[in-house]
Amino acid sequence: MNVNQIKDRLDELHAQSIVILHTADKTILCDHMILATVTSHRQMRFIANTLLKESGEKRQYTENAPEEEWMLIDLGDIMIHIMTPDARINIDLESLWSNRE
Question: Where are the transmembrane segments (predicted)?
Fold first, then answer.
């Protein structure tokens, strides 16, 4: 899956406030980060499981905080951050990665 296919799939799965950050020139970790907000922990787990199944990537990893406010899916060149609204505000990855040089 490419970054636009993942964004479209997140939209189909009713994720909200989907943002793609281009990070290739800011880190060696990934070329893109996709941020998405969900309304429940159940939706977060469902989206993560769906994307992992559908990605077809050999290198994939998922991790979530014990309180399940934020889930990270590592698909190699693309990292997907799925967060609750509170986590999205408190962590503010948009500002962190937008201001990096």
Answer: none
Range 22-55 burial, b when 16+ CB lie within 10 A, else e:
ebeebeeebbbbbbbbbeeeebbbebbeebbeeb
What's the CA gap between 35 and 88, in Å, rounded? 9
Distance CA 62, CA 76 (A): 11
Q: What is the pLDDT of residues 60-80, one digit of tens each?
A: 556 665 567 888 888 889 999
Given the candidates 3.30.460.10, 2.60.40.60, 3.30.930.10, 3.30.420.10, the CATH classification of the domain at 3-98 is 3.30.460.10
